[in-house]
Amino acid sequence: MVDNLKRGLMVGRFQPFHKGHLCLVGQIFEDCDEVVIAIGSAQINYSYTDPFTAGERIMMIHAALVESKVDLTKCHIVPVVNDENNARWFGHLKSMVPHFDILYSGNEFVTNLVSGQTEILKPRFSKRKEYNGTNIRKLMSRSPRWKKLVPDSVAGIIEQIDGVTRIRFLLNEKLSEREKNVI
User: What is the pLDDT of residues 56-91, one digit of tens each?
Assistant: First the structure.
């Protein structure tokens, strides 16, 4: 049994998985033997804020870890469907992932939800304004500069699935919906 392993959990939507996320994986390995990567909102896709499917995000994360020579035997990638009831969210999350010892989160709402239930460490963020999904999706809709913010393997997967075209389409849909609501 491997119960003596110390595991760190990171939770995110990973829309897309970027270099900041990869940096956090490295931080977790400084403290822990294994990392659990919980892909939140696994059921949501094909919207501007959540353009990629859970399967595509799994592929991106796996490829980025391989590219970075992370030992995959020490990683668990788990898609987690949202529970919209915040009072039971943490229990739901714990039931969907392997046991973990530390939750890594810079999200104040998440920190407040789980306070007193588990150890929480705040990540050391690297270039937080650049390395965030909102910024990357915005760049994807207008410029190739987004590629420097994600691992090469993630950029390759996004190109393979024509993700930039998808994001541009979804942005146009979002803007069209706004216009309809104004009328």
Answer: 999 999 999 999 999 999 999 999 999 889 999 999
Residue 23's φ and ψ, nearest 5 degrees, are -60, -40
H/E/C letters for each residue in 86-127?
CCCHHHHHHHHCCCCCEEECCCHHHHHHHCCCCEEECCCCCC
- Report in angstroms the alpha-carbon separations of 56 from 1, 13, 108, 129, 180: 32, 12, 27, 24, 31
Q: What is the arrangement of strands in the sheet containing 7-12, beginning at the earlier edge strand?
A: 75-79, 34-39, 7-12, 102-104, 119-121
Q: Is residue 16 reached through a cis peptide bond, with omega within 30 degrees of 0 on the bond before it? A: yes
Residue 101 neighbours by CB distance under 10 Å: 16
Q: Which pLDDT score, from 0 to 100, does residue 172 have? A: 87
Q: What is the CA radius of gyration of the chain?
A: 17
